[in-house]
C-alpha cells in the first residue's frame, strides 16, 4: 500500500527535522466544552503523530503544521473558525470533529471552498457508500452503522462474559442522532439473538449531572447486561450511579465515546469488576503493538493534556491517513490534489485497527473491524476480551439503508 | 419687572441652528434635515455598501452573523430595553423561528421568502404566549418565567427532533437548501451581506418608527410606572403582550435567517448561553437604544474573534493557542465589566457622549438651565 | 459646625446643579434654605449626606466640613454615624417594611422605638401597616420619626411641610423647635413654605439656579422686597397677603444672579 | 341635569382598614371642588377609586351617569377621567413632550404596521396630536424644558408636567392630587393662575386635593372635607371654615389664623 | 410508590435547597439575581477535583474541603468588592448583568485552568451502604440530606436572631436610604456574597455525592434559581417546601412520565407556582400598587 512510507516515517527517524515551508492542516475540535473528553484527544493524537513525523524529516522535508480551532460545540464558532482556517490560514484540508449536529454548517463551508475534510470519531451519512460527498472522509463511524456492526460482536462478547441471554439495558444522552444507537441496535439484536430481550432504554437530557433517577429503571430491571454509550461525562456518571444503586451486572461501554481514561474513573469510583468496552480501534493498553508503543513514546516526549487513550490512537490514525495522502499528493499539493489522494487511500494501519483502511470514489469510510475489551482492575488497563477482529463493511453489511 | 418675551421661534444667532425646526412634521421626521446628521447618515451608508470590498471573506461572514444577531437583539431590546420586562429566554424565539422555517421547508417545501414571514408570525405567537405571565408577574420573577418558556420550547424541540429522527431517519438535524428568494438566490457570503444589510436596515427603520410612535412611548411608560400609564389610558396588558410578540417576531426572523445561513438547525444551539449573549448585546450596546442593539450585536459577535485575530497578529498563537477561548471569554467579560462600570449607557452612550462633547467643546460642563437635549 | 465652601455638584458628570455654594449651619440653631424649584436645595442636602454615586452625581468642587472633618466623598453611613441625619424629599421610607420595622431599623433599641410612638401617636395607630401603603403625610411623619430616633446632632430636612396638613406642619415645626432647643440640635431646613420656615429659623439662605443669592436673619429676609414678593406673597406695601385670585403673571427668571 | 362625576356611598377597605367610608358627593359644570382632610383621611384613596385603581367595596362612582364599577382603569381614563398624581409619577425615560404625548394615547390609535411605516395617516395624526401637546406646553409655560428628560427636572416642575399630562387627555373631569405641594409662593401663584385658566378655557369640573388652606379658601368654590374616611363637611368655603368639626380635625388653628395657616409667629 | 423515590427526591431537594439558598441570600440584600453563582460552583468543583487526589485520606479530604470553603467565601468577597460594590445605585438589570460578566470571567478561569475536564471527587465513605426498605442506601445518599438540613436551619436561625435580617431587606429595597440611616450597606453586601459563595462550595460537594463534576454543573446550578423563585426570592421559609416540591416533581417525571422532560420540569413547576402566587410560596410583594 501507498501508506507504508508515511506510516513508517515517524519511527524511522532517518532524516533530520523538517524545515521547509510548512504544510498547513486545519483542525476543528471541542477543546473546551463538555465534549472535550471525546474530541480533544483526537487532536492530541494527530499532533503527536506530526511532531514525530516532523522530527523525522516531515514530508519531503516540509513540516506539517496543525492549526487548531476550538468549536466549543457552538455552530457560530464552528463556521467562523472553519472559514478562518480555509481563507485566513490557507490550510490544505480540514480535519477533526464535534458532535454530529454541529458538523453540517462546517461541511458547507468546506464545500463552498472545495476543501477536503477528514472526520474523526463521529461521521455522518455524507461519507457513506455508495454516494459519499466528494470532499468528506472519515476514520470514524456513523451511529447506525455502528449499531449494525454491534450485532455480530455483541454475542461474542456475551459468550466470553458468560451471559447467555436476558434483558439488555441501554443508555444514551439526549442527542437525536444518539437515539439510533439504542433503538436501531436493540430492535435488530433481539431479532438476531432471540435469547436477548429489550430492557429499559434510558435517555437523559444533556444537562443532567445527577443520574440517580434516570438509572433507577435499569437497576430495578436488573438486566443481564447494560450497554452504556454517550459523551464521556454522561457515560461514566451513569455507570457509577448504576453501581452505587446496586447494579452488579456487566456494563459495556463504547470505547469510541468512553475511552480508557474514563473507564478508569468508573473503576476508581465504583470498582472495576465487570466493565467492558467495544472498540473498532486498538486500545492504548495494548502496548505490545509497536505502533501503540510509538504513540506512548511520542506522548512521553511531546506531552499531552489528557492521558493517552483510544481517542488519541484515533487521532494518530487520522494523522497517518493525512500524511499518507500528502505524501502521494506530491510536491505542489493543492486542495484538489489532496482530495484525489485521499480518495485513493489504502493504508496499512500498523495494527491500530483490525485491517487496512481503504477509501474509494464510492466509499469514504472503509471497512471497520470490531473487537471487545475487559477492564482489568489489577493492571488498571484494558485487556482483550474477544481475540479476533470482526469485519464490518458498511457497503454490504448494513441491516437497513441509511437515511440521506 | 416686565421683561421681553422669551426668544421663541426666532433665532437671533448669525448662523441657522440645525436644532431649530419650524413645524412639527419636520421635528417628527425620521431624519431631520440637518447638515451634520445627513452627513453622518451618508457616510454610514457608503461605508456599509463598501464594506465587502474592504474586508476579507472571513470578516464579511462575521458581519453577516452580527447583522442577523442585530435583528434578534432589536427584538430583545423592545421587550427588555424599552418595555422593561426582563426576558431571559430570547433564544426560545430564535429556536421557534429557526425550526418553523426549517419545518416548513422539510414538510411543505416552502422557500425562505415565505418561511421568513411565517417564522416571524410563529415567533410572535409564541412571544405573546410567553408574555402572558407578564400580566401577573414582574421583575426577575418574570425573567425566570421566560427562562422557563425557553426550557419548555427546548423540550418540545427535542421531541420534534426525535420524531424527525424516527420517521424521517435523518440524524435529527434539519438541513436546508441555498435560500431562493424568487428574484435571486443567496449563494455567496456577499449575496447574504447585501440581503441582510438591507433587511436589517428595514427592521431598524421600523423599530425606530415604532419607538417614536404611541406604542414606543407606552412601552417606556409601562416600564416606568405601570399604574400611572394605565390611569392615562394605556392598556398595559396589551402593551406588554405586544412587546413580547414583537420581540418574538424579530427573534423568529433572526432564527429563520440563521437557520438558512447555517443551512440547518439543531435544538442544541438554543441554550441559555445564547439568551444570555443576547442580553449582553443590549447591555453593552445600551439598554433601550436601537443603535445600541446593533452595535452591541456586532460587539458581542466580533470581539472574541477579534481577540483571536489580535493574538495571531501578535504572533502569540503558539504560546496561547491552548487558552485562546479562555482569553477571548475573559476579554469579553472584562469589556462587559468595563461598560457596566464606566459607561452604563453602553456603546450608544459613548456615541451620545461623543456627540455632546463635540457640540459643547470647549466647555466641560453645561449649566442645567441651558442644557440642550436632542 | 457644618460648613460648605464653594461647593459644586454635577449630575452625570455633565450638568452642574450647585455652583459655588458657601454656607454655614450654626450649632444648635435652625438654618433654613429657601429657593424656587430646581434651585439645587435637594442636591445640596444630598451632597452633605453622602453620594457614593448613587444619584449619579458628584461633588466636583469645594469642601463640605463638619466639625473640622471633610465630608466630601464620605460614604452615607459614615456621615450618618457622625450624627447627621437626613429626611429626604422622596423615597423616604422602606416601602415593603412595616412601620414598626422601619423604626426599629434605625432605633437600635426597642425602648427607643416605643418612645417614638409616644411622641407621634399617629404612628402608633399605624404600627403594623406596610409603609408603602401609607398616605403621603403619614410617610412624612414616619420619615421624620426615623431620623429623630437616631438622636442626631445635625438634622437635614428636605421639605418638611411637603404634603402635610396645616395643623401637622405647625405642630411639627413647633416640635422641631422644641427638640432643637432641648437637645441643642442643629437643623438645616429646606422649605417651600417660606413664612413657616422663617418663623422658626435663626438664619436663612435663599438659593436660585444653583447659587446662593441672598442670606440673612429672618427679620432681614422677611422685610426684603423680593422675598416678600416671591416667597411670602405679601409686599405691595401693606402686610396683607395677596389673594390667589388676583395674582399677576411671573416669569421664571433669575433675579439676583449675575 | 346629570352631574359629570358622582361619588355615591363609596367605601374602600384594605383588610381591616377602612380608608373611605360611605362618602358621597358630586361634581358638575365647571366647579372647582377642593377635597381636604388630615393626612391619611382617604383623599388619595378616593381619587384612586374614581380612577379605578382601587375598587370600592361598596357604592359606586358614575361618570356622566354611567357606572364605573368594573370598568378597567385604562377605559376609565379614556372615558374622560384625567388624573395628576400626588408624586407626579412621570415616565422617567421620556422627555416632557413624550410624557404629554402619552396623555394623547387615546387619539393615537393605529395598527403596528402604520406606526412602523409612519408615513401617511399615522404621521398626520402624530403631527396633529403634537400640535395639541405643544399648545398645552405653551399653556403651562414649559417651553424651556420640553425636550428635557423628566427625571432631570426639579420636583415642582415635574408636578406641573403631571398636571399638563392630565390635561392632554382632554378629560371631562380633572382629578388633581396635591398639585402645588412643594412649590414656593410665587410658583403657587403661577399654578393658581393655571387652574383658573383651565377652568376658563376648558370649562372642566376639577376635584382638587390640597393642604394649603389659603389657596383653597381663595380658589375653591366648594370644599369637601374628609376625616378618617368619613365626609365631615361639604359646602362653600366660608361655611366649611366655620364648621367646628373641620377646625378640630384639620385646621387646628384659631379663628383669625384660618386664612393664614402657617403664617409667622 | 417505593422508598427509593422518596430518597431520590430528598437527595435532589437537599442539593437544590443549598443552591437556592445561595441565590436567596444575595437577593435579600440587593435584589440582584446572582448569575455568577454557577461559575463559583463550577470552579469549586474543579478545584476539588484537582486538590483531592484519587487516593486521598479522609483527613486530606476534609482539610481540602475546609480550605475550599474559605477560598469560596474569599472569592465571594472579592466578587462583591471588585464588581458589585461599584455598581451601587445602578439599575438591578445592570447589576444582574454584572454578575453575568463575573460568570463569564469565572468560566474563563475554569477554561484556562481545567479546559473541559470532568471527573469525580473521591468522597470518603463511598463504600458504606445499607439495605433499607428494599433499597440500597449509601452513606453518601444520607449525608447530603443531613448536611443540607443543618446548613439551611443554621442560616435561618442566624438571620432570625441577628439584626441583619431586617437590615438586609432595607438595603435591598432602598440602598441609598439605608445608608443614610446608618446601615453599612457594604458590610451587609460583602457578608451576603461571602456566605453565598461558600454555599456554592457546599453545594458542589453535595452534588458530588451523586455525580461527576463537569461543565454541566452550570445547568444544575441554574435549577437552584427555580427553587429560589418557587419559594420566594427573599424568603428562607419558602425554600424548604420549594426544594421538596421541585425535586419531587422532577424525580416523579423522570421515573414515570418522560425522562427527557426532566430538564424542563423545575421550570414548569415554577411557571405554575408563579401564576398562582406571583411572589413565590412565601415571598413578599416587592412592588406595591400605590400612586
Ligand atoms: N438625577 C438628576 N439628573 C440630572 N439632573 C438632575 C437630577 N436631579 C436634579 N437635577 C437637576 O438639578 C437641579 C437642582 O435640582 P434639585 O432637586 O436640587 O432642586 P430643588 O431646589 O430641590 O428643587 P425642588 O424645590 O423642586 O425640590 C435641577 O435643575 C434639576 O433639573
Ligand atoms: N393600598 C393600600 N393598602 C393598605 N392601606 C392603604 C392603601 N392605600 C391607602 N391605605 C391607607 O388608607 C388611608 C388613607 O390613605 P390616603 O392615601 O387616601 O390618604 P390621604 O388622604 O391621601 O392622605 P395625605 O394627605 O397624607 O396624602 C391611609 O391610612 C393609608 O395607610
Ligand atoms: Mg428639592
Ligand atoms: Mg394623598
TrEMBL record, chain B:
What name does the UniProt record give this protein?
Amino acid/amide ABC transporter membrane protein 2, HAAT family
* Keyword Cell membrane recorded: yes
Task: Kindly list the GO molecular function terms attached to this UniProt entry.
Answer: branched-chain amino acid transmembrane transporter activity
Task: Give the GO cellular component terms, alphabetically.
Answer: plasma membrane
CDD domains documented for this protein: TM_PBP1_LivM_like (cd06581)
Please give the InterPro entries that the UniProt record associates with this protein: ABC_transp_permease, LivM-like
What keywords appear on the UniProt entry? Cell membrane, Membrane, Transmembrane, Transmembrane helix
Main location per the UniProt record: membrane
Membrane protein topology class: Multi-pass membrane protein
Q: Which Pfam families match?
A: BPD_transp_2
Task: Look up the domain of life of the source.
Answer: Bacteria
UniProtKB/TrEMBL annotation, chain C:
According to the entry, every stretch annotated as the ABC transporter domain falls at 2-234
Q: Could you tell me the keywords of this UniProt record?
A: Amino-acid transport, ATP-binding, Nucleotide-binding, Transport
One GO BP annotation is: L-amino acid transport
Q: Which PROSITE patterns match?
A: ABC_TRANSPORTER_1, ABC_TRANSPORTER_2
- Highest taxon of source: Bacteria
Residues annotated as coiled-coil are none
Q: Where are the transmembrane segments?
A: none
InterPro entries found in the cross-reference section: AAA+_ATPase, ABC_transporter-like_ATP-bd, ABC_transporter-like_CS, BCAA_Transport_ATP-bd_LivF, P-loop_NTPase
Q: Name one GO molecular function term.
A: ATP hydrolysis activity
Member of which family? Belongs to the ABC transporter superfamily.
What is this protein's record name? Amino acid/amide ABC transporter ATP-binding protein 2, HAAT family
TrEMBL record, chain D:
SUPFAM superfamilies according to UniProt: P-loop containing nucleoside triphosphate hydrolases
Q: Which GO terms describe its cellular component?
A: plasma membrane
Q: Where is the ABC transporter domain?
A: 5-253
Spell out where the chain crosses the membrane: none
Q: Name one GO molecular function term.
A: ATP binding
Alphabetized InterPro entries for the sequence: AAA+_ATPase, ABC_AA/LPS_Transport, ABC_transporter-like_ATP-bd, BCA_ABC_TP_C, P-loop_NTPase
Q: What is this protein called?
A: Amino acid/amide ABC transporter ATP-binding protein 1, HAAT family
UniProtKB/TrEMBL annotation, chain E:
Write out the GO biological process terms.
amino acid transport
Cited Pfam families = BPD_transp_2 (PF02653)
Task: Tell me how this protein sits in the membrane.
Answer: Multi-pass membrane protein
Q: Name one GO cellular component term.
A: plasma membrane
Q: Which UniProt keywords apply?
A: Amino-acid transport, Cell membrane, Membrane, Transmembrane, Transmembrane helix, Transport
Q: Where are the transmembrane segments?
A: 6-27, 39-56, 62-84, 96-114, 142-159, 190-218, 264-282
Q: What is its main location?
A: membrane
Q: Which domain of life is it from?
A: Bacteria
The entry's localization annotation reads: Cell membrane
InterPro entries this protein is in? Answer: ABC_transp_permease, BCAA_transport_permease
Q: Tell me one GO molecular function of this protein.
A: transmembrane transporter activity
The entry assigns this protein to a family as follows: Belongs to the binding-protein-dependent transport system permease family. LivHM subfamily.
Name of the protein described by the UniProt record: Amino acid/amide ABC transporter membrane protein 1, HAAT family
Name the source organism: Blastococcus aggregatus
